[in-house]
C-alpha cells in the first residue's frame, strides 16, 4: 500500500522540488529549501509536517535523541533535503534510518545545491 501511495505522490513532490529549485537555484541553506518545499506541497493540497521528531527505541526504551525529519508528506513519505556539494553514502544511510525508525517504506533524498536538480534526486524504498 505504501509503495502505491509513494508512486502517486512522487510526481507531486518532484514537481514541487523542481519549482523550488527553478525559483531559487542552488546555494541556499537547507532550511530555506525546506520551508519552500512545505509551501509548494501544501499548495498542491498535500499534508506536510516539518521537523518531525524521530524517536529512537533502544531496548524497549523510547529515547528522545533530538533527531528531526525534514518533511513528512501525507504521513507516509519521508522527504530528506540536503544542500551539499555532493551526496554522500551517509546521507542515504540517514534516510534509511529515518525510514526504519518511523516505519515508512518510501522516501526521496533531494540535494538542492546542484546545477540541475534531476542530478540531485535519489529515491529509495525499503
How much β-strand is present in the residues? 25-35%
Shape field: globular
- Total helices: the number is 3
Q: What count of structural domains? A: 1
Task: Tell me the major beta sheet.
Answer: 5 strands, mixed
In helices, the fraction of residues equals: 40-55%
Estimated radius of gyration = 14 Å
Rounded mean pLDDT score: 89
Structural class: alpha+beta
Low-pLDDT sequence parts: none
SSE order: HHEEEEEHEE
Q: In which order are the strands of the major sheet placed?
A: 1-4-5-6-7
How many DSSP E strands?
7
Distance between the termini: 13 Å
SSE blueprint and pairings:
Blueprint lengths: L1 H23 L5 H14 L4 E6 L2 E3 L2 E3 L4 E6 L3 E6 L6 H14 L3 E6 L9 E5 L1
Helix pairs in contact: 1-2
What does it look like?
- With 126 residues, this protein is of the alpha+beta class.
- It has one domain.
- It is 40% helix and 28% strand.
- The strands form two sheets. Strands 1-4-5-6-7 form a five-stranded mixed beta sheet, with helices on both faces. Strands 2-3 form a two-stranded antiparallel sheet.
- Helix 3 links the parallel strand 5 and strand 6.
- Helix 1 packs across helix 2.
- It is globular and about 45 Å long.
- It starts with a helix and ends with a strand.
